[in-house]
Specification:
The protein contains one helix and 31 strands. It starts with a helix and ends in a 15-residue tail after the last strand. The protein is mainly beta and 394 residues long. A hairpin with a 4-residue loop joins β8 and β9.
């Protein structure tokens, strides 16, 4: 009996010592305050591993948010003195309408080449390139003076992007069925990558910049392209008969790509890393353009076929609102104002531009422009560099 009691006491002492050791190691969930009371310990935030980006690419500011540099009015020293303007390419008028966003008035009309599709900020943000698709030229505009420079010959420039390290411009040669990598300043051809899909048009880059996803609108396909090798490494047909993919945007956390589809009337949600089969999220008729809010919480989705804008909440992973334009319209491409308060969209089939309050969805203005307004650029915008299109900044 004596022996049993001795073993019990010894076991209790050992167990107590073990608990004391565990507490000392920091595994205890409560900590003592100076008064002797206890309180819950604050769990340490998850460690953010730095993103190993494409060589030469500016470092990712926040691994959980690729748009961290795009906060309201956080303008780069390069653009902070540029006047705030909205540049509207009119595809059938062969002009660019320049709007003062404070007065909602057209202050200039710039003649450009045949069928201007998009106004694209350069990687270094010093130039706006007008993509004269059928004129086979690019018109440079100086955003400081608003004056156009000498046209540069570039064949079939439907759309234009820039690699995240600023090394190459990437021309989306839609009818030529090519991705053409060029010098970002002179636009001299470096490498041409032929594609087997039809109608390459929009794209966005992964968080690390090492690949990008491209939409092919006329064959309903997606491409995955290795940025450094300048080579198509993946291709798939969208699982919808008659699919017509348009704008492409990556989620703030870099885990998903969203691809607008104007025939499927919604966005495809794609895992870019695996490049597996995407899922469709219905938004509205003629789903077309995708734009991120300045706090990275929401994405504005223009539904061209029904005159509406859907609002997708990234934090809740769901559509939360839909704004209908009074008197309808055809909201297409555009961008968000530097302060994040206004969404600007072209009315493709109505010869007008819409200014929409991003807090309420209220239409602030409806401005008549030229014929066939398309990829308008709001400029300047926050960010450190441009990936192209109508302004994808990181």
């Amino acid at each position: 009996m004596h022996l049993m009691r001795h073993h019990l006491v010894k076991a209790t002492l050992i167990a107590g010592a073990a608990l004391a050791t565990l507490a000392a190691c920091g595994t205890e969930t409560r900590e003592r305050t100076g008064s002797g009371d206890t309180k819950a310990a604050v769990p340490a935030p998850p460690e953010k591993r730095p993103v190993q980006g494409l060589p030469g690419m500016p470092p990712v500011l926040d691994p959980q948010d690729v748009y961290a540099a795009d906060r309201p009015n956080k303008l780069s020293p390069v653009v902070k003195d540029f006047p705030s303007r909205v540049y509207v390419p009119n595809t059938e008028s062969d002009t660019v309408s320049v709007i003062d966003p404070k007065t909602y008035e057209i202050i200039d009309t710039i003649p450009v080449g045949r069928q201007p599709q998009h106004v694209v900020p350069s990687w270094d943000m010093k130039t706006l390139w007008v993509n004269n698709n059928r004129g086979h030229t690019l018109t440079p505009i100086d955003p400081k003076t608003g004056k156009a420079g000498k046209e540069v010959e570039v064949h079939d420039p439907y759309n234009l992007y820039f690699t995240p390290n600023g090394k190459y411009a990437v021309v989306m040669a839609s009818l030529d069925r090519e991705l053409v990598f060029r010098d970002p300043h002179t636009m001299k051809e470096v490498k041409t990558e032929p594609v087997s899909c039809f109608g390459v048009n929009h794209a966005d880059f992964s968080a690390d910049g090492k690949y990008f996803i491209v939409s092919c609108e006329f064959s309903g396909e997606l491409l995955k392209v290795d940025t450094e090798k300048m080579k198509v490494v993946g291709q798939q047909k969208l699982p919808f008969t008659g699919a017509m993919p348009q704008d492409v945007k990556i989620s703030p956390d870099g885990k998903k790509f969203y691809i607008a589809d104007m025939m499927a009337d919604g966005m495809w949600v794609l895992d870019g890393k695996t490049f597996g089969k995407p899922k469709l999220l219905p938004t509205g008729k003629g789903c077309h353009g995708l734009y991120i809010s300045r706090d990275s919480r929401e994405m504005y989705v223009s539904n061209r076929g029904e005159g509406s804008v859907s609002v997708f909440d990234f934090t809740r992973n769901k559509l939360t609102k839909k704004w209908h334009l009074p008197d309808g319209g055809s909201p297409d491409m555009g961008g968000v104002s530097a302060d994040g308060k206004v969404l600007w969209l072209s009315g493709r089939y109505d010869g007008e531009v819409y200014a929409i309050d991003t807090r309420t969805g209220t239409q602030l203005a409806r401005i008549p422009v030229g014929s066939g307004p398309h990829g308008l650029a709001v400029y300047p915008q926050p960010g450190r560099y441009s990936l192209g299109h109508t302004g994808i900044f990181r």
